[in-house]
Amino acid sequence: MVSKCANPACSAPFRYLHEGKLFRMEMNPDGAVDTLHVVAPSGKPAKHTEFFWLCDECAIRMTLAFEKGGGIKTRPLTRALRAAS
Fold this sequence. Notes:
Order of helices and strands: EEHEEH
Shape: globular
Radius of gyration: 15 Å
Strand content: 25-35%
Distance between the termini: 26 Å
Largest sheet: 2 strands, antiparallel
Strand order of the largest sheet: 1-2
Number of domains: 1
């Protein structure tokens, strides 16, 4: 469940889906994002979905990315991506 902005330096609470930007990540049991496909007894990859949210202020300046060994991290948006949004 999302409760606040994924930016560790921001404390904005999550209230509405129409505010900010919601990210959906398919996570493997080891916390990785789509790097290793572990197969469950059912024959399907053992993954789960996690959601992360950036508030309006943070979503203007950054995005989220997976960092191996570090999990989900904020990354600054490039000028081209900022202009497109």
